[in-house]
Amino acid sequence: MMNNPSTILRASNWNLVGNEWAVELLCQQITHGTTRHAYLFAGPSGVGRRTLALRLAQALNCTQPIEPGIPCGQCKDCKQIEAMRHPDLTIIQADSEGGTLKVDQVREARRALTLKPYQSKYRVTLFLRFQEANDNAANALLKILEEAPSYVVLILTADTPEQLLPTIVSRCEVLRLHPLPLDQVESFLHERGAEKDKARLIAHISGGRLGYALRLLNNPSALELRNEKLNEAQLFTTATRIDKFSYAEKVSKDKDAMRNVLSLWLSYWRDVLLRAGESSVPIANIDRAKEIESLAERVSMSEARRMVSELENSLSQLESNVNARLLAEVVLLDWPKL
Length: 338
Hints:
Blueprint: H1 5-13, H2 20-32, E1 38-42, H3 49-61, H4 76-82, E2 89-92, H5 103-113, E3 123-127, H6 135-147, E4 152-158, H7 166-169, E5 173-176, H8 182-191, H9 196-206, H10 210-218, H11 220-235, H12 241-251, H13 255-276, H14 289-298, H15 301-318, H16 324-333
Parallel strand pairs: 1-4, 1-5, 2-3, 3-4
Helix pairs in contact: 1-2, 2-3, 3-4, 5-6, 8-9, 9-10, 11-13, 12-16, 13-14, 13-15, 15-16
């Protein structure tokens, strides 16, 4: 199916690169009138979950489709959906990434879904990053899934189905989206004007997540911030306790910024672990290969694994009401001393 010209054409018309099988499946359902009332698009952030959801909304409500399942992208409905300002499109998500999606937001969506579509065939509601929903919000969504009218299509996105209630997952058609091969992302970025070395670096940093790669390409300050934070991380192996306490105080003032820093450190230590274990898996931070290899020679594999585990746990704890400064202090005090 992946090499079928019609499948590639549909994915092209949906303006999606990769996961063509998902586009083909959704197009076939629209063509045969078998669209589900609820979907779960699962995969890592930046893999294209939201883009696929918006394309499905366009395909369902386009007034001038090129053919069944292929939106024109130019009609009023398509343009409004693309801008996420369509009267029959509702988007529910936490206020910030890593925040909490609350029950009141789901209840408000439930009230809206009792109304028939204003100008289109379907009323579409996107619940983005639904793994961030609290228990009450998840239970409220379960009621919507059980009672949704025929003119409603619900689309959830999450990192993995396992993060959600099994009763929610069982009521959705689950599409697991996957990152692209790194060379495909690199070629895509190079074709769009990125220098070859930069395209290769971004492809590796993104881990094949094209959406994330494009954000990095279009936001040079993100790469600059990454370099700054990884440079600081190198100093922790020789920093004093006072320096670490001072840095912990600074980095913990903004939870969103701290989440980004912890993610960068996690990526770095995963690379160290890969090199310590002599794995053939490509590292993400290829521009720092020499220092990563040097660090891998100076720390044990168990130490590298411990740092990866600790940073993963820290990111998880940051989503709760844990004391961010204390969390940062623990991570830095446990940093290997060389």
